[in-house]
Design brief:
Number of domains: 4
Structural class: alpha/beta
Largest sheet: 7 strands, mixed
Strand content: 15-25%
Number of strands: 27
CATH class of the largest domain: Alpha Beta
Radius of gyration: 25 Å
Helix content: 25-40%
Number of helices: 27
Bound molecules: iron/sulfur cluster
CATH topology of the largest domain: Rossmann fold
Shape: globular
Distance between the termini: 57 Å
């Protein structure tokens, strides 16, 4: 082998090998990460990737998902041209058309719906990815529709709502200065590897961990000084019982409460209902463990907790449960204090970077007024009050029933109908539409129902603005040409706005102009400077925390205080919601004798995020078959062993998967992994088993039956 051949085999960059390295980022998972990547290129193709040294998030590392980027962007089934449906909806028969033809058809169909039914009859929906959402919202508003919405109707927002009700804005953990971290449904080992590394390092330095989770996870095994395992969806009752024990023993910060907390007396009286007499029956947690948790909190006064947790909110009582957990911070004086939870307002795309931007101005300045309320507003008035956008969990119902007004077209980017509870109902709704457009990299199960499918490109094929915590930011440049005729999502949106001549000049000016004028101008930085930078560079001074400053100034709640009792809910008795973080049973109304197990789904796995990456062979090989975790005692009773097949059924349907006997789930619980088309966990759920506070689906608390498949 020659020296050059050796270098080529080793993918060594240089003029002789023709291999060069360009920098970009991974957008497989959440905007809270977006790790930096070195992309090795030869002949215009990515031949290798690695983590980018010095990047503020990942500093040279990539997770299992991020390492799949190359296989993901070069999947053989990438859509390379706009497509027009020629078969039945769902059949998957399409023919290529030009971009001009696609825009013409989209404009014709959307305008037809507007003329026949009004602009609100068109919904604008975003699934994955998320980076273009500001532009999509403006597109909806420029068209005249209030119906912008996204997959955050089932992800994160309920936690954010709990924060807004309690403190007016989100609080993040000051973990580095905490004595104790309350990790409630916290498993970063599968959802955020950098957070897991941080937690492990802090544990080595002496940080204590109180981990609460329905399942045993790597966090309970590697981090917990004390682990509590409540029944699924009973978290609120457990949090109230811990609060009661703290109150009973006087282990609270009374001066702090008297000065900064609203609703304490009623909250304390309510929490007293969750005590030694009933807590084990409700949650399955022995009262001694509640006492142990209170003792651990008392012995470690500076306490913080995870600021967001989907598992806590994926119950019909989820938002209230989350408020009950957050209340523990308030009664121990740990909000707005070093080592506790600090206000972390969002800078951009729901990420807190330490500096303000005018993103919200761009989002809301063109919101149409005097139009009909967005989808879901009558059913979920608190959601509507706090979020002011479509609650997409009500979308399929409104399409099928046509009430309170017809919904006849959906303009979607990256939509996944399988993420909706009773996913079959969403597919039926898509069949009923006058017009459905989806934009994606691949012809997904959902895109097969579209009339027009537009080809989007990946993060390697486009540029994107990205700020990070610490006041730094970056603007990536494409490292390869878009595959085929695929385009960046934001270019599609801006081009369509121009094609339809919608009345919104900033939208028509495009994404980069938005970033420049609404974000960077305020800091005297240009997109060009960010593009030239090797790594994210400082653009803004970071707000420095001062203890109790926010509370002294007054929080963005109606009372200006931390609210254990929500003054917003109190002021709207017509909503029929409770101002205190009350607890109610999580399970649906199915017959417990016919359906003696409880189904939970939605747990993260390290090698994929939801269904994303399931079609990448290397990642799929790590968990190739749809599988459910079942407690070993339940397996013994059913007579099943590893790899045997079990049938899980609910009143909505049944599916058969492999079983994995385990001790990570308690008896009576089935943990079904989601994201598999051939065994769609959400097809078993009730589309109306939703949290009335947030509209969130109960992915994690549905009665079911389990039988051995013969
Ligand atoms: S998928 Fe992994 S590598 Fe990619 S952004 Fe998320 S954490 Fe980083």
């Amino acid at each position: 082998m020659t020296d050059l051949e050796r270098k080529l085999q080793g993918k060594i960059p240089g003029p002789d090998t023709g291999i060069e390295v360009r920098r970009t980022m991974c957008d497989i998972c959440s905007p809270g990460m977006h790790c930096g990547i070195n992309a090795y290129l030869k002949d215009g193709k990515v031949i290798k990737i690695e983590g980018l040294d010095g990047h503020p998030v990942n500093d040279g590392k990539l997770c299992t998902k991020g390492l799949a980027n190359r296989q993901y962007i070069y999947r053989e089934d990438r859509i390379l041209t706009p497509l027009k449906r020629v078969g039945r909806r769902g059949e998957g028969r399409f023919e290529p058309i030009t971009w001009e033809e696609a825009y013409g058809e989209i404009a014709r169909q959307l305008n037809r719906c507007k003329e026949l039914y009004g602009p609100e009859s068109v919904a604008f929906y975003s699934g994955y990815s998320k980076w273009y959402r500001q532009m999509l919202r403006r597109l909806a508003y420029a068209f005249g529709s209030p119906n912008y919405g996204c997959e955050s109707s089932a992800c994160y927002t309920a936690a954010f709502m709990a924060w807004k009700l309690s403190a007016g804005d989100q609080g993040g953990p000051d973990m580095e200065h905490s004595d104790l971290f309350l990790g409630w449904a916290f498993n970063p080992f599968h959802s955020s590897y950098m957070a897991a590394r941080k937690a492990m390092k802090l544990k080595e330095k002496g940080l204590k961990f109180l981990i609460v989770d329905t399942r045993r996870t790597p966090a309970s095994e590697k981090l917990a000084d004390l682990f509590l395992q409540p029944r699924t969806g009973t978290d609120g009752a457990l949090a109230l019982a811990i609060a009661h024990e703290l109150l009973r023993r006087g282990w609270i910060d009374l001066p702090y409460i008297q000065r900064y907390v609203y609703g304490f007396e009623e909250y304390a009286a309510y929490a007293a209902q969750f005590n030694e007499s009933n807590i084990e029956a409700i949650t399955g947690v022995p009262y001694e463990q509640v006492v142990a948790a209170a003792e651990l909190i008392h012995a470690n006064p500076r306490m913080s907790c995870n600021e967001s947790s989907a598992p806590l909110c994926h119950h019909r009582n989820g938002l209230q449960n989350y408020r009950a957990v957050l209340s523990l911070l308030a009664i121990t004086g740990n909000f707005d204090r070093t080592g506790g939870q600090l206000l972390t307002p969002h800078s951009y795309m729901h990420v807190s970077c330490g500096f303000p931007t005018r993103e919200e101005e761009f989002l809301y300045e063109t919101r149409p007024t005097g139009v009909k309320p967005p989808v879901g507003a009558p059913r979920f008035p608190l959601w509507d009050h706090l979020e002011g956008e479509m609650q997409a969990m009500d979308l399929s119902r409104q399409i099928l029933e046509g009430t309170p007004y017809p919904l006849r077209a959906v303009f979607a980017l990256g939509m996944n109908a399988r993420m909706f509870p009773d996913s079959g109902r969403m597919f039926r709704a898509l069949e009923e539409l006058d017009f459905f457009l989806d934009t994606d990299l691949f012809l997904t199960d959902t895109a097969r129902y579209a009339d027009i499918v537009l080809p989007a490109c990946s993060s390697f094929e486009r540029g994107e603005f990205k700020p990070y915590p610490g006041g730094v930011a970056w603007y990536t440049s494409p490292v390869i040409q878009p595959l085929g005729q695929s385009k960046s999502d934001v270019d599609i949106i801006a081009e369509l706005a121009r094609y339809m001549d919608l009345p919104d000049e900033p939208l028509k000016a495009g994404y980069e102009a938005f970033v420049q004028h609404y974000i960077l101008d305020d800091y005297g930085v240009t997109t060009e400077q960010l593009k030239q930078a090797e790594l994210p560079i400082p653009i803004a001074p970071v707000h420095q925390h001062r203890d109790l400053e926010a509370l002294e100034h007054g929080l963005a709640t109606p009372t200006g205080k931390y609210e254990l009792k929500s003054a917003i809910i109190e002021a709207h008795p017509q909503w029929g919601l409770d101002a205190l973080p009350t607890y109610r049973e999580p399970l649906d109304g199915a017959d417990p004798e016919a359906y003696p197990f409880v189904l939970t789904s939605g747990s993260r796995i390290p090698n994929a995020i939801h269904s994303r990456l399931h079609a990448v062979p290397a990642n799929r090989s790590l968990r190739p078959h749809p599988t459910a975790d079942l407690n070993r005692a339940d397996c013994a009773r059913l007579g099943v062993e590893e790899g045997d097949r079990i049938t899980i059924s609910t009143p909505r349907g049944r599916l058969t998967v492999q079983v994995h006997p385990t001790l990570t789930v308690p008896e009576g619980l089935v943990n079904l992994f989601h994201g598999y088309s051939e065994a769609d966990a959400n097809s078993l759920l009730d589309a109306d088993h939703l949290d009335p506070y947030s509209g969130f689906p109960a992915y994690r608390s549905t009665r079911c039956a389990v039988t051995k498949e013969n």
